[in-house]
Amino acid sequence: xxxxxxxxxxGFLGWNICQTAKREWEIFGTVFSHRVEIAGVNIxxxxxxxxxxxxxxxxxxxxxxxxxxxxxSDPNYCQLNRNESKKLNVDASINIAKLCAEYSxxxxxxxxxxxxxxxxxxxxxxxxxxxxxxxxxxxxxxxEGMLKYHPMVAICRMALMFGITGPRAxxxxxxxxxxxxxxxxxxxxxxxxxxxxxAKAAVSGIFLALEKVCGLIHLGGIERISRYDFGLSxxxxxxxxxxxxxxxxxRDVVMPxxxxxxxxxxxxxxxxxxxxxxxxxxxxxxxxxxxxx
Length: 293
Prior knowledge:
By secondary structure, the chain is α/β, with parallel strands linked by helices. It has helices at residues 12-21, 51-61, 75-80, 82-102, 134-149, 173-181, 199-212, 227-237, 268-272, and strands at 3-7, 26-31, 41-45, 65-68, 106-112, 154-158, 161-162, 186-189, 193-194, 197-198, 215-219, 225-226, 245-248. The chain has 2 domains: 3-161 and 196-219, NAD(P)-binding Rossmann-like Domain (Rossmann fold), CATH 3.40.50; 170-195 and 223-264 and 284-292, UDP-galactose 4-epimerase, domain 1 (Alpha-Beta Complex), CATH 3.90.25.10. It is built from 9 helices and 13 strands. The strands form 4 sheets. It has a 7-stranded parallel beta sheet with strand order 3-2-1-4-5-6-11, with helices on both faces. The longest helix is centred in the first third of the chain and has 21 residues, at 82-102.
């Protein structure tokens, strides 16, 4: 079997990638401080910000492909810890691209819809980037640096993702469901729009990019939706009648990092290459919402 190197194996997306890929690949998944056991996956403990350590891992494993998902992905954390988050989000990403170029390895990098300022949605790949927070800026720097050193990199700009959780990481819907079942009030934005996509669809898009794409590709869902309306749709599908949701605006919640109002992605390029997802609020990839929580 070919060898696949997946960074961030214990994260939400990394874990879902490992679950899908282990049927066809020998997987080496990285962790940093907290080791986790994943059936069918070789767990590699490595500090990705240490170039020498990372290079030794590449020489030892000799991967046939790399999917780089790990990141400090909380915009507020990145805003308050710029230097620390840059080491992982930018420097480590560029070093991975350099090593992939050195060993002629195809690489997929998962970026974000937050590279845009939210004023000109829906966004296609050729639209100019203009992040409003430091996390988005770091992802732009990583995209540019990785493509500079390794033009064979596929940059997958990911929309907000939901789906089955791993042993350590959750998607954004699990805290929403937990709050509802515990009777806690939850404030959700009515003026922040995304194009959410299930983890299953996202992973299929990533492997499509690994096979067919060099450069930028957007992997978002079909529908533009606010967090508030998404929450109502989710509760309806789960038949939870007394969700204590209250609508609010971005201005009502003060946070260190600014948030763009609408970073909906236009994923036409991906759809033309075989990417598939379906309408929210009905059935997701042939399964009910219950299969995703």
